[in-house]
Amino acid sequence: MIASLLTSLVRLFTGARGRWPEGLFVTPRPRVYFANHTSNLDFVVLWSVLPPTVRQRTRAAAARDYWTGGPVRRWLASSVFNVVLIERKQVTRANNPIRDLGAVLEWGDSIILFPEGGRFSEPEPMPFKSGLFHLAQEHPNADLVPVWIDNLNRVLPKGELLAIPLICSVTFGTPLLRLDGETKDAFADRARAAVIALRGH
Predict the structure, then answer these.
(1) How confident is the model at residue 166 (pLDDT cuts 50, 70, 90)?
(2) Closest CA to 10 of 74, 55, 67, 68
(3) β-bridge pairing 169-172 and 143-150
(4) How far is CA 6 from CA 15, 42, 105, 150, 158, in A?
(5) Taking a C-beta distance cutoff of 8 angstroms, is the pair 49, 25 a contact?
(6) Which of 67, 24, 75, 17 is nearest to 46 (CA)?
(7) Closest Cα to residue 40, out of 121, 110, 127?
(8) Which domains does the chain have, with CATH numbers?
(9) CA-to-CA distance for 119 and 107, rounded, in angstroms?
(10) Cα 27 to the chain's mean position, in Å?
């Protein structure tokens, strides 16, 4: 109930609109939505524009250090958005994010992931880190869906506490095909290019 209310408010305030290829959500299967990252609202907006039945089976990978930084954020992360809290500063074998994200995919749910590893204000995404590659390797049945989030860095700029009403859009692409024998670096470059290609669509 609270999640539905918040997503409605987010869509109303940001004017967020989702666009995707016909048939993307026809088959109920786990997906990894990987997107550019410029605002703390990114995963909330992406999540909010998904069809309700898809949204119910989609969780976001969120930075533990940020989303446990206060009681309100902790409550939102655990009780409202049911995010997967991941370590991004001191990753060890015991807290490896790939394990927790992989468990979500094995369960049949989908993941929202930001492969840059942080928020950046540059026009194009920073080089992707290796997490998406490892998820793709270990979970070949999950669709890899590129997403471009436009204008959200202007709704809630990095370092700002108050959002500015502005229309933004979320564009989903066709799933990225896996290539046999592709190296980690080549995959990361191709995945990043797939996200950038959606800009302006």
Answers:
(1) low
(2) 55
(3) antiparallel
(4) 13, 14, 25, 20, 21
(5) no
(6) 17
(7) 121
(8) 2-196 (3.40.1130.10)
(9) 28
(10) 20
Number of Cβ within 10 Å of residue 141's Cβ equals: 9
| Helix or strand (DSSP H, E) at 113 | strand 110-113
Look-up: residue for tokens 């927790």? 100
Direct distance between the N- and C-terminal alpha carbons of the chain, in angstroms, rounded to an integer: 32
Residues sharing a CB contact under 8 Å with residue 55, sequence separation 6 or more, in sequence order: 7, 47, 48
Quick one: what percent of the chain has pLDDT higher than 70? 84
60-100 pLDDT, tens per residue? 888 888 878 788 888 888 888 888 888 776 666 666 788 88
Give the helix ranges, DSSP H, for the chain.
2-14, 42-49, 52-55, 64-67, 71-75, 97-107, 131-138, 152-155, 184-196
Of the candidates 42, 27, 3, 35, the one whose C-alpha atom is nearest the C-alpha of residue 144 is 35
